[in-house]
C-alpha cells in the first residue's frame, strides 16, 4: 500500500486507508447518481489543543500523540505543537463517514482530557498563540521555517481536507476545473475562524486569509491537461515557492500517493456532522463533474482575479452573506446558492445515500448559524473569549443535529 501525503505540510506519514481507483472515465456511467455510488471519500481534520484551565493553546501535541497510541495510525503530528490531525477511513457514504469522524473526535478529546487539555475544532486559535509557534521536531519543518521565515509564524491553523477517489490523473485535472468555481461556496459553508490574536477579524474565515499568504496556495489555475498541471507544479518547485510537492498548497490538488483529488479550501468543521456534509457535497460535485466531462460539457472558467475576489467575499461573509453563483455569474445569498447546489447534486446525493443526511445537516446549519456565527454569539453573551473556547470544545465531540438552537430573529 502506498503512503499517502494527506497532510497540509506534505510530510511522509504512516499508511492510511487506500482509495481504490474507479474504472477509467470512458467506462464510467453517464448518470451522476450511479457514479456517486462508486466514488470513495475520506477526510483529514486538523485540531488545536488548549489548556483546560486557561483555554489558551497548549504546545502539547507530543504528549497527546504518545498517549493516543490506540488511535494511531489515524492520529498524526502537524507542523506546530499546538496541532494534531486525524485521518478517516475510506468511506462510501456521508453517514458512514460522520460516524467514523465522530468516534475519532470523541476518542481524541478523551485522550486530550487525560492530559489536562481540551480538543477544539476551529480554524484559528482564539487565545494564547505564541509567535513564532513551537514547531514539531521534524527536520522538514525546520527547513520550512528557515526558508519561509515569517510565514511559519501564522501556520498553526486548522483545515478540513476532503479526498475523493479518481480513475486517473487526467480525469482528476478536468474535475478540478469543474470544481474551481464552487470553491467560494464550500469556503462559505465551512467558515469557522473569526477570531485571531484575541480579537474579531471581521472575517468569517480568517484561516483562509492566513493560508492565502503562501506563494503556492489559493485556487488552482484552469488546466488544459495533466501536462499543463505538471508544468505549473514544476514552476512552483523551480522558483522555490514550494520546497517539494507536499507544499503544493492549491485549494484543489492531485494526490501523489493515492488515486484521489483533494479539496483543501475548508476550515475545520465545528462538528463531525458538518465535516461529513462538506464531504458529501464535494463527492456530489465530483460525480456530477465526471458526468459532465463524459458528456463533453466544458467547465466554467472564471478569471483567476474573479475567483480570488469571490473567495475573499466567502471568507469575509461566511454562511450569513453572499457568494458568486458559478452558473449565472451573479452574487446571491449563500443560503439561496446552497439550495441551488443541492438541486444540482440531487441525483448524485440520492444514489450515494447522502441526500437525506445532507438536507438535514444543511437545515440545521442554516437554523443554527455558521461556525463563525456561533463563536461570535458565544462571545456576545458575556464578553468572554473563554466562553468561545468552551463552546468549541463542546461542539468538537458533539453534534449539530441534536443540540441545534435557532438563531435569534
TrEMBL record:
Give GO terms for biological process: modified amino acid biosynthetic process
Q: Looking at the keywords, is Magnesium present?
A: no
- Residue ranges of the region described as Disordered: 1-29
Q: Which family does it belong to?
A: Belongs to the glutamate--cysteine ligase type 2 family. YbdK subfamily.
Q: What is the lineage of its organism?
A: Bacteria, Bacillati, Actinomycetota, Actinomycetes, Pseudonocardiales
Protein name, as recorded: Putative glutamate--cysteine ligase 2
InterPro entries per record: GCL_type2/YbdK_subfam, GCS2, Gln_synth/guanido_kin_cat_dom, YbdK
For this chain, one GO molecular function annotation is: glutamate-cysteine ligase activity
Give the enzyme's EC designation: 6.3.2.2
- Keywords for this entry? ATP-binding, Ligase, Nucleotide-binding
Role description: ATP-dependent carboxylate-amine ligase which exhibits weak glutamate--cysteine ligase activity.
PANTHER family reported for this sequence: GLUTAMATE--CYSTEINE LIGASE 2-RELATED
| The keyword rRNA processing appears for this protein | no
| Reactions performed catalytically | L-cysteine + L-glutamate + ATP = gamma-L-glutamyl-L-cysteine + ADP + phosphate + H(+)
Q: Please name the Pfam families in this protein's record.
A: GCS2 (PF04107)
